[in-house]
Amino acid sequence: MPALQRILRDIFFLGLAAVLFWLFLPERFIANAPFNPAGINTPDDQLLTDRIVLPPGFRINVFAEELAGARMLEVTDSGDVLVSLSASGRVVLLQRDEDGDGETDGQIDLISNLTRPHGLDIYAGWLFVAEADALGRIRFDSNNRTTSGEYEQVVTGLPRGGNHWSRSVKVGPDGRIYVSVGSSCNVCIENDPRRAAILRFNLDGSEAEIYASGLRNTVGFDWRPGTGSLYGVDNGRDLLGDDFPPCELNLIERGGFYGWPYANGNKVADPDLGAGRSAEIRESIAPVHGFAAHTAPLGMAFLQNSRLPEDYRHALLVALHGSWNRTERQGYEVVSLHFQEDGGIRERKFASGFEIDEDVIGRPVDVAEGVNGEIYISDDYTDMVYRVVYR
Question: What is the pTM assigned to this prediction?
Fold first, then answer.
């Protein structure tokens, strides 16, 4: 067969395979994956004002830009904002707004040459950084905006790669380090029990333990003020249709198993791996709140500042990064969760409008509360950090 005929034949069969792949996958799961090459449709303050719907009294503006792949945030005691730039291996400090124009007064590179840094936390004079395969720390002076000494990895050999590469870190009320490690896959039985789990260590990286398991991809987690209870969001699996399974908020307990990969949502057996796992499903812990399917909750933060309206002072803000595998997009917003006296949780929209009629201008990743009640939102779609203030 002549070379040209072979090439044409191969192109035909590749095209046919692509069409069949598209037609027979549940809900055409790649229908609307959003991409933003070269900063197309990057919003300015006017577009944000026109598009983003906030509760009465709140307003939003661009705080910082040109932050390629901006991910997790950490606010210092001095009011500066740290942001991890995973793609470029850096942690950057955004100086607080002292001239009153609503924007950062400058950017400072704190650490570079890291391996996909993601989660950040400041504790007892240390800045902790969760890399793709390690946990590191360096001395940090928030008043002088400087680091000192050598950056050291106190935990190495964390499982890396796979579907969920990001690692998040926080120091808990017990003075120990908590690190989340997502699953390597959409749905599978992991070979490494440290995946789809939250790990716990001493500050020096010793005494490692699996704190909780069955958590497919818990990017954001935090302790609820006044209770000491640990909550974390989790991303539900893909390829089960537009509206199942829900993404989750879990009350995370030591030794708890949260269902993945055998159960989804409120102990619903997984169609691929749930058969014969009734005992594990029965003993799993159900979520305390369900988000809409495929909305991809990532960062979260409990609000505490007294300058905020009373109804928001103890609310939980959650960044919904947005769907990539629904026939119609869903998420692309920040929501607030309000804990009721009867134990229920009520979800409200807090910052919506990043997606309207399939037009996307932003994908929230993380949220953080400033020292004066400001709320910062990172966006890895526009490479920006936004600031929301209440007047």
Answer: 0.90
